Amino acid sequence: MTNHFPRDEQETSAIIRDASEKGILLSLSGQSTKAEMGRPNQTDASISSSALTGITLYEPAEMVISAHSGTPVSEVVRTLAGKGQELPFEPMDYRPLLGTKAEPTIGAVAAMNLSGPRRIMAGAARDSLIGVRFVNGRGDVVKSGGRVMKNVTGLDLVKLMAGSWGTLGFLTEVTFKVLPKQERMTTLVLRGLKDAQAVEALSQALGSPYDVTGAAHIPGRDRPGASTLIRLEGFSVSVDYRLGELRRLLKRFGGSTDVLEGRGAEAVWQSVRDATVLTNGADRAIWRVSTAPTKGPEFTKRIAQSIEAQWFYDWGGGLIWISTPLSGGAGSSVLREATQELGGHATLVRAPAETRSAIDVFEPQNETLMTLTKGIKASFDPSGILNPGRMYAGV
Q1: Is the dihedral of CA 357, 358, 359, 364 positive or negative?
Q2: What pLDDT sits at residue 156?
Q3: Domains and CATH numbers, the chain
Q4: pTM of the full predicted structure?
Q5: FAD-binding PCMH-type domain spans which residues (predicted)?
Q6: Composition of the chain by helix, strand, coil, percent to 5
């Protein structure tokens, strides 16, 4: 297989145009830290953004940063931290789950719409993504969006690229809106709640005026070990006030409470962000389920009635990470039945290639949505050479 490492946009365009003309199927990547996600696709060559690096624009006063797609996320984070700023959506790092070691790239954050616990307050990566440059399947260079949120020219195209998994174009540059880094972070921990109680408590906290920036529940193997996590960030005086009010608001749920600060709190939220709560062996499948928060406990109850499973909740119960045995299609039929009955989307995040080839990795689309998906793919990539079949077979 030929591996391409273009050094600029023009070289990228030439490679993709040549592949389109010759019908060469291309696998797109950054540093390949997430290459084992999605459906395995049979391609003739690969193209990587790993040589397209560097921050191209940073205006702290305007709270905007642009970078070539192959720029390590860590470089972007360090640059922002130097000016007391951060990516508001707290992008997840999949390396612990997938066992990869290279540096994740900022282009992959946009391409996969990677968002962490703060999504409930700050929105997803796509909500902060305000500009992109990419090369489509024809080899054309496309620029969409701008440096400010008010520039709505092509904004829908920016959102379309976020979460497209490289099936519509090869990103060469991305622009994000950023926010000031919070002065203090603290976490209220409620102990021993059952899943339904925990989700109710999280819903009350999120519905309060106290600006919760993280809301997760980790069931214990025995109920006293369960931890319900509510994060607050901001100026210290404000955090103290909101913490006291939340304690009073949630007092009726009973049980013991703790407050986590400093590195301990950071470590807990990193384990939630990166789903390392479930890294209990690589011989299990891991699913990511989005559903209505109020349906979360019922969803996991149904799963547990059919297969052995472990799970925890993020986003106030709206995001469920589930670990299942690999046998029997990794529990695919059970999860799909639950999403059809209760609503939601289940994505297979980790499993061997043979499993990902045999079952739907992403939530199956109905005929109308699939027709639309195929039409969008054809308009961006008429020869179907970019990450073919990565999300859906034949697309």
Answers
A1: positive
A2: 78
A3: 2-180 (3.30.465.10), 184-273 (3.30.70.260), 276-358 (3.30.70.2740)
A4: 0.94
A5: 1-181
A6: 35, 25, 35
